[in-house]
Every structure is written in structure tokens, then in C-alpha cells.
């Protein structure tokens, strides 16, 4: 599975028509107070199901807690966003709800194709002692930021590659030239970074199980929100 989509880009007229259709659909869905309530309930129920799949124990896979890396994929666009958190049990539940995370505002969870979650501390036993010492010295927060930077530079997800401006427009971010804490420490973790990329590739390329919205590996999981529409 590639990070970039294979779909042909729509023409400007097709794009504007699709935008108009989206607005018209929302006008219908929110046509009166009862429909508004139904819309609110339906959206939260879906987001809650996705959050539970991202964090809960499922089919022999332990509940996801602590530090993780995560990424959201959409049909066509492929990998759209990469993030990290030290509190997966909280942040991943909120990811599709959007109460404290901006992603769902731009990319509604109803169209997410998959979400990849890598529990990077599970990989530490496979790295040299010098890197484990570096992780201990850096602390898990800085280490998580460093691995997030490695993924963002390698995969170039579009929603990480621009930043909002006060004037209402967007400015490209040169992730490779970043001087953030993560960027400054990423080079200290070459083997751990490679293992993270390998684990990521396995989950990003996994096929959704039949009649199931989740598949797991020893170090993470891939959740398929798209499969929930079929259940």
C-alpha cells in the first residue's frame, strides 16, 4: 500500500460541484432540531466506536496505553497525518471525537480508511544498549517527538507539511530543516527509527480482516473505520 493515492485529481469544476454537494447534504442532514440531534448522536457514536477500537483490548491484543505513534489514512490521499502521544488511552480516544485534537475538523473520521498505531517502547529490547541509554537520557516525551519527526520526514503527510497563518492562509513547513526538539534528537536513534518504520510499513500495508475492523501485531494495530460502515 502506498502513502500516495492513485485517484485522478478532479477538475476545478468537479471539485466545486463536490463541495456544493457536501454543503447541500449537510443542509439536509441538519434540516431541523430533531435532525441536528440525530446528526450529533450518529457522529459521536461513530467516533466513540473508532476510539474504542484504537485503545481497547480486542481479540487477544492488549489495551493501548502510554507512548505511541499514530497515523491516519484516507482513500485517495493516503497517509494524511502523523502524530505521537504519551497518553494513548486519552489521545487516541479523542482523535476521532476532536474535542482537543484538530484532525477530525479537517478530516472527518467517517472517511478514514485506516489508523496505524505503533507502540514504540515495545521495540526497545531490539536496539543496541547505546540507544536504550539515549532513550533513558532523553526521556519518553523527547524520544516520542524524535520518532514522530523521523516518520514525518520519511512519509511527508500533507497535514503535517503546512502550518496555519494568522491571516487565514497556510505556509509550507520544511520538516527536514526543523529545529524542534524531536528533530534535534532524531539522529540519536537510527536503529529504533528503522524498527519503527518497519513496524509502520507492516501495519500500513495490512489488509482489513474479513468482518473485522482491526488487525494487530506484536507492537501495534491498524484500525479500519471504513469497515464500520459495513457492520
The secondary-structure element order is HHEEHHEHHEEHHEEH
Unreliable stretches (pLDDT < 50, length at least 5) are: 1-5
Cα-atom radius of gyration:
19 Å
Chain-averaged pLDDT: 92
Strand order of the largest sheet: 2-1-3-7-6
| Major β-sheet profile | 5 strands, antiparallel
From the helix content, strand content and strand pairing, which structural class follows? alpha+beta
Describe this structure in words.
This protein has 231 residues and is of the alpha+beta class. It is 46% helix and 15% strand. The chain has a 5-stranded antiparallel beta sheet with strand order 2-1-3-7-6, sandwiched between helices. Strands 4-5 form a two-stranded antiparallel sheet. Strand 6 and strand 7 form a beta hairpin. The longest helix has 23 residues. It is globular and about 60 Å long. The N terminus is likely disordered.
